Structures are given as structure tokens and as C-alpha cells.
Amino acid sequence: MLIVMKSEAAQNDVERVKEKVRSLGFVPHEIPGAQRVAIGITGNKGGLDPNLFLSMNGVQDAVSVSKPFKLVSREVKQEDTVIDVGADRIGGRELTVIAGPCSVESRQQILETAEILRDMGVRFLRGGAFKPRTSPYAFQGLKIEGLEFLKEAAERTGLHVVTEVKDTETIAAVSECSDILQVGARNMYNFSLLERLGELRKPVLLKRSFAATVEELLMAAEYLASRGNYNIILCERGIRTYETYTRNTLDLNAVPLLKSLSHLPVFVDPSHGTGRWDLITPMALAAVVAGADGVIVEVHPDPAAALSDGFQSLRPDKFRTLLARLQELAPFAGRQLTLAPSFKISATN
Ligand code: PEP
Ligand code: MN
Fold it and tell me: Pairing mode, if any, of strands 38-42 and 2-5?
């Protein structure tokens, strides 16, 4: 249920409603809005009677939320969620690019990549230190050492770090060295991990699992929000279909769909979504036209030598061209590409 407060309601009225919700054994979630406050109610004790709240001071309406996901739904919050990461913002009018290698492979590799990206005006560096690989014999990441290299890269370049958190045991270590915690496709259903990340306030980039429905992705996001963390970025990264020319099928339907069902920012990962470097640029551009708030792209200084996902990583020169095209396209999609202040990218220099 959602309690909509009157625009003139006092904070005292809001507190009284929250207290009442608690006394009934449910959890209140205050959702500030541009005009008025709303209070989302969650809990698993069955239905609630709106009349319990309608007569309270400051309450305008009490409506039931029809979707199984509540706090992340547009029904509960109409305005787009905008997430602050340092001085940068994700969502709203921003078009954000997260770039970097699939895995942190060495100090030299991640520092070099971070410097290349910084010189193009990019603000967000990706790189996996704890890699959840399908094969136990594949490169598993540099782990703690990889995190330290990411931290050093961030200190040297001012870039924000996005890196995957694979399990509950390493949350503290990963959190300490990153600005956005990535939950990978293999972990979208790891509810213990989601619950723990819900207790933090650090932004989470939540990737859709290979065979997850859009509703399941939103329910995973609801796990985070129900514990108080609303700093969630949803990420479409391709789903498994019968097609074999591509690694996954990038479900661009999901972008406008998620944007209409939820107030959260939506990103697209055309690297994993296609599994082919030559398809990254067209699909990244298509993602923006479909309404994505950003893209996350694998970029490697020498893709042929990459320890993971080199075949779906762009070389820096190709990435620069993508960035230039995104910058050109952004205004047509009602957006502005987030680059370092006054940075104008050009495809040639
Ligand atoms: C990754 O980003 O490198 C990754 C492993 O992604 P996903 O979880 O989407 O497969
Ligand atoms: Mn990868």
C-alpha cells in the first residue's frame, strides 16, 4: 500500500503515519517527492485496510499498489530516481558511460585503461576483481589485489569505480574500494547478498540474469529497496535464446518497459548482450534511442591479450568513436552525455 500525504502535511503527520504502520507490524518507507511525501508500506502479513489511514491528519489518499514490486515501481514514485556518485549524477537527463576491462588483470593494465578513459572525459571505470566465472578453471580475478589496483587507478584519475561483489563475505572489502557495487547476472537471485547490500547505501548496478523475466529483475531490486537502499541501477545485459551467432540476445524491449514500470535508472551492457565487439556500437546507440540512462561497455587496451571477454571488448580507438557518436546522439534522446566538465570528445583526437 501507498499512503500519499497532502502537500501541506507536517513532518509530525508523516511520523504519526509511520508509527501506525509499525504498530501494525509493517515497515514504512518514506519516499520524498517534488510536491509531497509518500509512504510505501511493505511487509508479509497480508492486506491492509486503507480506512486505517484515511482519517489521519495530513493523509490525502491510501492506495493499494497493484504490482508485486512496490518501492521500485512508478506507481509509488513518479519522478525518475537520480543517483549521486561524488559530484556526478546518474539518471534524469544524464547519459552515463561506464567503461573498462572485463577483469582487472594487472596494475599496469588497469592504470593504463583508467588514464586512457580519463583522457576521453569518462567518469566511471569498470573492472572485475572478483570474477564469477562459469568454469572453475577460468581466470577468477586478482581479488583483493585487483581491488587495490582499482583504488589506485581511481586515486590517480578521479574516476569512480564500478566492480562486482560476488558474495556476502567480501562486501566490506569491495565496498571500501568502489563507488558502485555490481551484482552480476549469476547473482541476481542471491537474495542473501541482495539483503546485505540493501542495508548499505552504496549504489548497486543490478544485472538481469540470463533467464530472468523483467518482473524478476524488479523483484530483485525490491529486495534492495525494501532494506532501505534506493540507489539502484537496473542493467539489461542480454538473455539466453536459441540464437548462436551472438552470446546473448540483447532485450531492448526491456528498456522502455523498465522505464515505464520503475523510477530507477536503466543501463544497457552491449558487450555481454551481444558477445561481439563489432555489435557493441550499434547496440549502444540503439539502447540510448530506446531510453537507456547509460551503457556499460568493456574496453581493453589490447583485447586480443585479455584474460576474459576480449572478444566483446572495444579497443580504445573504437571506444572513442562510440563516445563521439553517443555525444552527438544524446540531445536527440533528450539527454546530455556525462563527461568530465567541458570535455568535448572527437572521434579523431
Ligand atoms: C561482467 O560484467 O564482466 C559480467 C560478468 O557480467 P554479467 O554478470 O552480466 O555476466
Ligand atoms: Mn565480462
Answer: antiparallel
CATH 3.40.50.1000 assigned to domain 2-63? The reply is no
CA 117/CA 319 separation, integer angstroms: 9
Verify whether ligand 1 is closer than 6 Å to residue 185 (CB atom).
yes
The grid coordinates of residue 54 equal 484515511
Q: How far is the CA of 17 from the centre of ligand 2 (A)?
A: 46
Q: Is the CB of 102 under 6 A from ligand 1?
A: yes
What distance in angstroms lies between residue 44's CA and the mean position of ligand 2's atoms? 37
> Residue 25 Cα, ligand 2 centroid: separation in angstroms?
43
Report how far ligand 2's centroid is from the alpha carbon of 102 (Å): 4
CATH 3.20.20.70 range(s) for the chain read 83-337
Nearest CA, atom 10, ligand 1: 185
- For residue 251, the tally of other CB atoms under 10 A from its CB is 17
pLDDT at position 35 is 82
For position 103, what pLDDT does the model report?
98
Output the residue whose Cα is nearest ligand 1's atom 5.
184
> Is 128 near ligand 1, meaning CB less than 6 Å away?
yes
Q: Report the distance separating Cα 46 and Cα 43, nearest Å.
A: 8
Mean pLDDT by runs of 10 across the 349 residues of the chain is: 93 96 94 86 85 94 89 94 97 98 98 98 98 94 98 98 98 98 98 97 97 98 95 98 98 98 98 98 98 98 98 98 97 94 64
At the topology level of CATH, where does 83-337 sit? Answer: TIM Barrel (3.20.20)
Q: Are 29 and 41 in contact (CB under 8 A)?
A: yes
pTM of the predicted model as reported, rounded to 2 decimal places: 0.95
Beta-strand pair 180-183/160-164: parallel
Residues of the chain with CATH 3.30.70.1140: 2-63
Nearest residue by C-alpha to atom 6 in ligand 1? 184
| CA 91 to mean position of chain CA atoms | 10
| 131 CA distance to ligand 1 middle (Å) | 8
pLDDT at res. 32 = 79
